[in-house]
What does this fold into?
Amino acid sequence: IANKRSISWAIAQAASADGARLAVTYQGERLEENVRDLSATLTDPLILPCDVTVDAQIDSVFAAIDKEFGGLDFVVHGAAFAPRARRACFYRAGWRWT
It folds into this structure.
């Protein structure tokens, strides 16, 4: 969840309203406060840092989810990332970079 306008946030609200307990992730300290504020309106969420460019953080998230929930019923992957230098040519060059 990046902010209140993200599609991930709309999905989280709908899932929570339908009774789902969610694990919510954020990328970096800059987004943490906003995600925690938004998640306060959800039912008992598990809130975890997850920078998808760091394999160890992904592993840590899945370990915490297994411990807390015993597994997953569904995943919403709403991460979008491109290095600042690549954003101008993002649509022309595609989403992969080296």
User: Anything to note?
Assistant: The chain has a mean pLDDT of 84. The chain is about 45% helix and 10% strand. Helices lie at 7-17, 29-39, 55-69, 84-87, 90-93.
